[in-house]
Specification:
Structural class: mainly alpha
Distance between the termini: 62 Å
Number of helices: 11
Order of helices and strands: HHHHEEHHHHHHH
Strand content: under 5%
Number of strands: 2
Radius of gyration: 22 Å
Strand order of the largest sheet: 1-2
Helix content: 55-70%
Shape: globular
């Protein structure tokens, strides 16, 4: 049974609860505590089922549902744990059959990283930093950087340092990764706007991108951020 069919099952079960408890027709004001608890419990069973599955589509459908929850700001610790698990699917969290890796799903990790950007907490920041440290896929890393910028938290410069490390790693003079560089510039801009400061490593990275072997649009964007930061510093004097 697919994840969306499971969600439909949740709705049917929750609707049936008042009848089973002798409460039919008693109120239309919303779910009771018992109904809400039942829905949450069944939902977690389904999410955990998708977590241990080796079918990529089931995981993506589960992430679609989790994404709706994060956009509404309604995510429990249990749901966050599943989301964090998906962000390491196939890297740290590996499933093997006869020695063969069967859950190498970069698309799942990328979607998880995207949804982590909607959870603006230190825990989400740390989860994304771990993605930056462990994931080999540029598109996943690009999304992790974007999400770190969306969160805007930079505890002990951990987020900025992770962005610098990833971008520097993909700074090849022969084939620099423009998407990662642009994501880094935008993320550092957002973190600066949120905190009012960037460390020396971040400033060096912006200068490197502005003068490096990147696409013209990426270099211009880096220069824009540098100029904006200088103006902000001058106004703060």
């Amino acid at each position: 049974m697919k994840f969306k069919q499971f969600i439909a099952l949740i709705v049917m079960v929750v609707i049936a609860v008042p009848v089973l408890m002798g409460q039919a027709g008693s109120s239309n004001s919303g779910m009771t505590v018992e109904e809400a608890y039942l829905q949450e419990s069944v939902e977690m069973v389904i999410l955990n089922s998708a977590r241990v599955s080796t079918v990529q589509q089931e995981k993506l459908e589960a992430l679609e549902h989790i994404g709706e929850m994060t956009r509404q700001g309604d995510i429990s610790n249990e749901v966050f744990a599943v989301l964090e698990y998906f962000s390491l699917e196939g890297t740290i969290n590996q499933a093997r059959e006869r020695g063969r890796l069967v859950n190498e799903f970069p698309d799942v990790r990328r979607e998880a990283a995207r949804h982590l950007g909607n959870v603006r907490t230190v825990e989400s920041e740390l989860a994304l930093i771990r993605v930056c440290e462990t994931d080999p896929e540029p598109l996943v890393l690009q999304q992790a950087i974007i999400s770190l910028g969306n969160i805007g938290i930079n505890e002990d410069n951990n987020a900025v340092n992770a962005i610098v490390r990833v971008t520097t790693r993909f700074n090849s003079h022969r084939a620099p990764d423009n998407l990662i560089a642009l994501a880094a510039v935008d993320a550092l801009d957002k973190i600066f706007q949120n905190s009012g400061t960037l460390n020396f490593g971040a400033l060096n990275l912006l200068l490197m991108i502005a003068e490096g072997p990147y696409a013209t649009a990426v270099k211009e964007r880096a220069r824009e951020v540098i100029i904006s930061m200088r103006r902000s510093a001058a106004q703060g004097r």
